[in-house]
Amino acid sequence: MSWSFSNDKPIFQQLKDIIILKIIKGEYPPGSKLEGVRELAITAGVNPNTMQRALSDVEETGIIYTMRGDGRYVTDNEEKITEVRNGYLAEKIAGFLNSVNELGLNKNEILGAVQSEIEKRGEI
Amino acid sequence: MNTILECKNLSKVYKNAVALNSINLSFEKGRIVGLLGPNGSGKTTLIKMINGLLTPTTGEITVEGEPIGVKTKNNVSYLPDRNFLPQWMTVGQVVRYYSDFYNDFKPDRASEMLKSLGIKENMRIKTLSKGTQEKVELILVMSRSAKLYLLDEPIAGVDPATRDYILRTIISNYEEDATVIISTHLIADVEQVLSDVVFINHGDIVMCDTVDNIRQREGKSVDEFFREVFKC
Predict the structure, then answer these.
(1) Tell me, what DSSP letter sits at residue B193?
(2) Which of A7, A38, A41 has its CB closest to that of B220?
(3) Residue ranges covered by each domain of chain A
(4) Using CA atoms, how far apart are residues B118 and B135, in angstroms rounded to an integer?
(5) B193-228, pLDDT tens digit by residue?
(6) What is the mean pLDDT of residues A61-71?
(7) How confident is the model at residue A20 (pLDDT cuts 50, 70, 90)?
(8) Is A2–B192 a contact, with Cβ atoms under 8 angstroms apart?
(9) Which of B164, B212, B220 is nearest residue A2 as measured by Cβ atoms?
(10) Among A16, A114, B16, B84, which residue carries the largest CB count within 10 Å?
(11) CATH number assigned to the domain with residue range A11-76, chosen from the 4 options 3.30.70.20, 3.40.50.150, 1.10.10.10, 3.40.50.1820
(12) pLDDT at B38
């Protein structure tokens, strides 16, 4: 089953986000070896060039690295993964805040609304 | 040399129509290129000329630096836009036929793909549906280890699940330094496997760019962008 993509962003950027998310969620565990570019491209249903570009971008964040002649691995540095996860979370929250900004609520109203929504769900 | 295909000032004029109007194109190895344009824009004419089935009115085409001829035909694997298999043969027979014809044909690859699509080798071509015939044809074309694959409307007649299978087949079977040119107007279905696209209209190249550049610049998919450019 190929991965799904939205229409408004370049595919390599979306691939980058999906791969980072899979590492954060532990779907690709720390220290594990990633599949080759072509295998990953087939799984995702995308062009191998695009996958190559996305992987290079993920590599720049430091959560995967290349072993020459052997392929790519997820870092076993869990602090690094936590750091990237926090960055991801901050980005999502910033997006959320931007989208509710136009309601003109103050800080406490937003915090209160988030709090009560979480309580309503019991667990997230 | 990294260029696989080059077209210089290429024109094709039929009796009373200009099919291609002095186009220039150049593609590197290892790309999957979408040749996109409305009906009658010149896509098939271009593919047939690269393939040596039509002769240019003016201009030149080279594949790996060679002018079109016997040598380039060894490197080019072509899927026509209409059914071409001998109707009286069985699937197994056409596989052997291809095997005899092309040195670079990999019969194992063909058998494996036929099996995974549930097409039996003892079935006769004329008993297959139009869509299944298209699948067999694409399998034959992709089972060659060519340098350049020219696929003219490869997914037009098949169901969406098979489309996905075919696209995966294309990604997994082209050699790393081979280039695939896919002509189609079903852009949404192929967009994510393409690296580059060429928009062609009334015999002119309207645009030639990478999919990522277009998405980045336009903030929309190539499919949406196409609908805008070619709005009727």
Answers:
(1) G
(2) A7
(3) 11-76, 79-121
(4) 11
(5) 999 999 999 999 999 999 999 999 998 999 999 988
(6) 90
(7) very high
(8) yes
(9) B164
(10) A16
(11) 1.10.10.10
(12) 86
Between chain A and chain B, how many beta carbons pairs sit less than 8 Å apart?
58
Model confidence pLDDT, tens digit, residues B35-56: 998 888 899 999 999 999 999 9
Cβ <8 Å between A45 and B30: no
A16 touches chain B (CB under 8 A): no
* Among B11, B9, B34, residue whose Cα is nearest residue B24: B9
Q: Which pLDDT score is estimated for B59?
A: 94
Picking from B172, B193, B215, the nearest residue to A46 by CB comes out as B193
Where along chain B do its domains lie? 3-229
The residue-averaged pLDDT of B104-121 equals 93
Backbone angles phi, psi at B65, to 5 degrees: 80, -5
Q: Which residue bears the tokens 């002649």? A: A69
**CATH class for the domain made up of B3-229:** alpha beta
Name the minimum distance, in Å, from the CA of A49 to any CA of chain B: 7
**Amino acid code (one letter) for A3:** W
pLDDT tens profile B128-153: 988 889 889 999 999 999 999 999 98
Do residue A50 and residue B223 have CB atoms under 8 angstroms apart?
Answer: no
Alpha carbon of B162: minimum distance to chain A alpha carbons (Å) = 12
CA of B32: which chain A residue's CA is closest? Answer: A47
Distance CA B144, CA B105 (A): 4
Cross-chain residue pair B195–A47, CB shorter than 8 Å: yes
Confidence of residue B169 (pLDDT cuts 50, 70, 90): confident
Predicted local distance difference test score (pLDDT) of residue B168: 86
Give the model's pLDDT for residue A123.
64
**Sequence-ordered alpha helix ranges (H) in chain B:** 43-50, 70-73, 91-101, 107-116, 130-142, 160-173, 187-190, 211-218, 222-229
> Nearest 5°: phi and psi at B124?
-85, 140
pLDDT exceeds cutoff 70 at A80: yes
Q: Does A92 touch chain B (CB under 8 A)?
A: no
What tokens were used for B214? 């277009």
State yes or no: ipTM above 0.90: no
- Taking CB atoms and an 8 Å limit, are A46 and B192 in contact across chains? yes
